[in-house]
Write a structure and sequence with these properties.
Layout: E1 6-11, H1 16-26, E2 37-42, H2 48-61, E3 66-72, H3 75-78, E4 84-86, H4 99-106
Parallel strand pairs: 1-2, 1-4, 2-3
């Protein structure tokens, strides 16, 4: 009996941490080796081109548990009917910023 896919939202989806995490979700290491998933990938508008690249890689790797991918910059779309969310992403560190500056922006 085939399981219904879980809808999983991942924020900061075009970033490096998400890039490392997505294969674990897509391979069944997070929700189980038989559990299909639909990935709702959220990022900010300037990151949409990078997010398209992430989606292409997911498609190219043909993960058998990935039942769909929803790339978006709209939180309403990203969080609609989801079963779980992974919140990643933050204001990036820029030249001349100290760690305390970064914390002020992100906390």
């Amino acid at each position: 009996e085939k399981m219904e896919p879980l809808r999983i939202a991942i924020t900061g989806a075009a970033g490096q941490i998400a890039y490392s995490l997505i294969p674990y979700v897509a391979n069944g290491y997070v929700f189980g080796p038989e559990q299909p998933v639909i990935l709702h990938l959220l990022d900010i508008p300037p990151a949409m081109n990078a997010l398209k690249g992430v989606v292409l890689e997911i498609e190219d790797l043909a993960f058998p548990l990935v039942a769909g991918v929803v790339p978006t910059d709209d939180p309403e779309v990203a969080f609609k009917d989801i079963d779980a969310a992974v919140f990643l992403g933050s204001f990036p560190r820029k030249k001349g910023m100290e760690r305390k500056d970064l914390l002020e922006k992100n906390v």
